[in-house]
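In the previous chapter we treated chains in isolation. Here, by contrast, the input contains two separate entities that must be folded as one system, with a combined length of 1130 residues.
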Amino acid sequence: MKTKDTLIQFIQSDLIDDDQPISSDEDLLTTGLIDSVRVMRLVSFVGEAFSIEIPPEDMTIDHFISVDAICAYVASKQS
Amino acid sequence: MEKQLTQSQLLLWMGQQLNPKAPLYNMAFLFDLRGKFEQKAFQMAFAKLVEQNDTMRTVFHLTDGKPQQLLLEVFHYSLPVLDWRKEPPGEIELQKWAAQRSQELLDLEQCCFDSVLIQLEEHRHLWYLNQHHLITDAWSVTVLYQAVMEYYQLALQGTLAQAVVPPQFANYVDFETLQRANAKTAEHWSNKEYPSSLPRLYGFRRPEAGSQAYRIAIPFTLERAEQLRALTTRKELRSWTPHATLFNIFLTTLFAYLFRASGQRSLCIGSPAHNRTKPAFKETLGVFIELFPLVVEIQDRETFLSLYKKVQTEVNSFLMNGRPGASSAETSRAFGTVLNYIHTSFPPIEGLEVKSHWIHPGHCDPRHHLRMLVYDFDQTGEMQLYFELNADVFDETLRQQAPVHYLSILDAFLQNQEQLLTTPSLIGAAEQDLWLKKLNTAVVAASGQLLVQQFEEQVAQTPQQIAIRCADQELSYQELNLKANQLAAHLQQVGLGVRQRVAIYLKRSPELLIAIWGALKAGVAYVPISFDSPVDRRYELLQLADCQLVLTTLDHSQGTFANYSTTVLDSDQEIWNSAKVENPPAVANREDLAYLMFTSGSTGQPKGVMISHAALTNYIDYAREKYTAPNQSTFALFTRIGFDLTVTSIFTPFTCGGQIVIYPEQDTGPDLAVLDVMRDNAVDIIKLTPSHLELLRADDWSSSRIRLMIVGGEDFKSSLAQAITAAFPAELQIYNEYGPTEATVGCVVHHYESRDLDTGSVPIGRPTTGMEAYVLDEHRHLAPVGIVGELFVAGKGLAEGYWKDETRTQECFVTHAFQAGQKMYRTGDLARLNTAGELEFVGRTDQQIKIGGIRIELGEIEAQLAHYAGVEGVAVELLEQLPSVADESKSIKRILVAFYSGDQAVDVMALRAYLSKVLPVYMIPSQFQYLPALPLTPNGKINRQALRAMERENQSLQSYVAPGTQVEELLADMWQEILQVDQVGIYDEFLAVGGTSLSAIRLMARINEILELDLPLSMIFQEPTVAQFATRVEEILAKLLSDLEDQNSAE
């Protein structure tokens, strides 16, 4: 639960131009909500905030397409 | 307000300083506005734009040797309006005007843009805007356009005063300065490994290119765009966003193209990071983009998909680390190719129909040999692709073909991403036609008669004519034929015929020719053994060839060949007493062997090349057609019979009523019969090697009777051809004939013309009659024009294979790439097709060496050296240099050593300076060794083994050479001070001793200050050593002094 909130907060305050609300299953990427430069900031943030090592081959759309997807990825790395 | 430059600006500023006269960074646009338009309102809008955006009011200048930007508070710019309604120009004139205007240099100290409004018709205006890249980028232009149009609407409504002040560029400069202090990303880029050299596209190898460039539109259909977009949803390719996926695809295909167009595997492409990382930056005018290098290493059997995966990872790292201020002169030196993928466009304006054009100023950063621009218009689904091609790297032909080659790669990607990068052919249909139809005209010679029958026919026509002269001895056609018939009868009598072999070991003599014709008539293949070959070699050949008989002279039959069956031509009188005088019936079929000739491979093991009657006939038919003329067909026989070059002289005259003059070997010493030929002055046609010509170049041969030279066996340098042309009468014709023994003497030929001068070597030209030639890449695709590949030959002259060596035969005589059921021979020679449609010899595949991963052809270096006045013969070798005592690594270094001949040793320093203008640094030999003459092999070719073995003079080149002159001393001091090094030798290269672009600026500022000169920044890169620089400075000072004296005396 905490992971999800942290992520939503970061995305809203740092990545999206206006503070529009987002839901955890919302497609962040294919909709153009977050561009490819900012998605890298998201990747860096995920690595630092949850203390996980994200190898380049894991930096894929499937792992980062939505807040839910990121949560699942983080959980898989932490277990 | 004065501010330092952002890193991106600094690099642009330096680029401009290096090319002060070229409009490299002019970003000019022309907006075509149709509809009702208020000029006054637009002028007010533009004035407002300048007033509200600091970047529009920015100028640049040097403060204490450092470039600074000055953001002026007050800056008036009144947009000029031109009225062209009376004589409105046509579209072409308009384009011309825009192109010209876009090339005007902007004075960075005064105003960094140029804009004008033009009225063409009542309801048609053109708005021209040119900005220096220092104050704009593609994104900025769209923001600017939107701002102006918004102000225009406000001005129309009379509410311009309400315009909100947008964010300013100064904020970004401050932000970037802070970011730059964050060393983490900069470290990423400085730790990254970059390719050691730029890919040599289409064989480009000059040290540097100029700035002139062309923008070429790549025909890109909507269908292709749709196919591409469809791929973005493929699971294997899907990246962060559809745009990111498209960018990755373009990057992957561009890498694949670079690999295929250069052969280089370590590749780097620069691409811009937009750097507009904050919402406010998206609304700010100014240059934000910063180029960062993307690097891949192409592996063996790389597929498009596996490359795509690498690219994807590399792009992620680029996105992660491509932060404001993190680039440097070093990162920007890493690439010579740029990919710019743009998906912003100019939105339409209410009440106006707007068309925009980005005008290319005809110049680009000279380091960028290739820039690819992709415009992705989301609204229409359309894509536009452009190549911006450096004019020095891509000549006119290549500018047509390069886009086709790229599209071949892109289409291959669209078709099947799992295929190898090397699978698709680069060249398009038009280029393929050039190869298959124009170069290889499938001419079928209809003669049909084999050589022996042609000779017999000639005998019947001219029985009394002299066929052979040797000193005082003469033989008529009839006499020669009679003896050949007698010998043939003898051979048949002892049971010899087709599929059997006789060795011939004879001096160059009438008997030699009788022996050859006798063997051919009897249907027996002859195995020539050169007279001066060592005894062991003679035995080896006899053994290898499994000869049934040796044709020789008495002394040798009792000596060397005592244990073999011999026929002794000078004492076996019964042969010549035989009554048989008629021509024997033709026994040999077309595919039966005429001769078996042994050549030494690089391993030293002799290889027997089997040449059939058909192959030999094909060559001689060609030679007669091309070289002989009535009453002017006397050939000289003076080269070794075991060398297939000699075949031309042995047979050609006898099929056209010509004559042979024989020049025998001397009993001792090297075979210098070529000098006898020249002194005797009794022949019209001579077949010889370039090394033979070297012996002749210095003398005056203006009264020589020779009217035609056929040069073969070795690379023929243009400088030598030129010297020979000058030494002989003007009527002399020179043919450069190329051909491995395996393709019978000559299969590609070029008629030398003085216009060939500008290339290092004389081209080898086009295939001879009945022959074909192809330059193929390592995957057996036709190589595009200009690209070096291996030369393959095919046709009627191909050997039957190697004698008793099926493995080697299969290795070298391979399946024909273009004609079913045929073979082609891989020559092991490197060649390329030039834009004139001629083949050029480049070197041997085994002479292609690698230094630091860069492929180098020694032949290229030799060609440039041979151009230098005073250098005659030349050979470059890669040799191992033992480590010096001082070198602690104790590693063995490999260095290039140039051996050259000429009247005397040349000034190495001047030679080096010359080479540095025509070759990249890594291709310049480390040592130059003068020899009065280069050692030759018995066949008259340069003896490379002897060179390699030659004891090098014990003068290993010193790395540190102290300054000698006052100017050198002064310069070396300044170098040491600015580069912070203890010692600078006068031959040390600026970049090699730690020079950077920034230190170059400081150094040049310092030099100009001390010497009171105004030297351009580029000089330090043109004259990169203290020694070279000092020479230039001395020249300049001397010129100034003499000008001053002239002035004084005039007064």
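Chain B has 31 helices and 40 strands. The interface with chain A takes residues 238-244, 247, 273-274, 277, 279, 313, 316-317, 319-320, 322 of chain B (CB under 8 Å). Compare these points with the single-chain example from earlier in the chapter.
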